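User: Hey, quick favor. My workstation is busy. Could you predict this chain's structure for me?
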Amino acid sequence: MTAKKQKDFIWSDYYKSHLDRPPNHTLVKGLEFFISNTKNLPRTAVDIGCGNGHDTVELLKNNFSVLAMDKEDEAINLLIGNINQKSSFLKTEVSSMETFVVPEVALINASYSLPFCNPSVFGSFMNMIKNNILDGGIFCGQLFGVDDDWSYRNDMNFHTKKEVKEIFKNFDLVLFEEVNEDSKTADGSSKHWHLFHVVASKKNV
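Assistant: No problem, here it is.
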């Protein structure tokens, strides 16, 4: 498929257009699996690229201690505004994925964020994520496929189905959905999306 160039992605527009968005279905599925199958793990989580916080709020509702990170101050401010009162279970950090140090936790959520990690550090960052999920813990998130309209960009990551499966070879796939279709972006522009929805449980070793 020939990629067509899209206009620059503006994060502030994305945050505004998703203010009332429910939690991502990958997180919902991951939480269902975690609550049913991981009785002995602590409820600790990292939300990578938390945006306005709809996923972070869902984690807090399920009694998780959450470290929410995003590279944009605006995102963290929106997240804090989405919480009715200050929570001792929430910590926030303004950081890029290229400099963020992932702590050891039971659940890592990365809704639509990982494709925007600089390709030069994606491999090492993804390895840090996988290494710091506790055995039996959960990853929830998305990766973009090679047919995506944004695949011309050299500052993003795109993978084949085989490559995504290889990334999670030491995990059990709780959910694996491939989407390859024409749809819209946050601002209503037409776009061909190719992405993989992943919920994966780290195998006990």
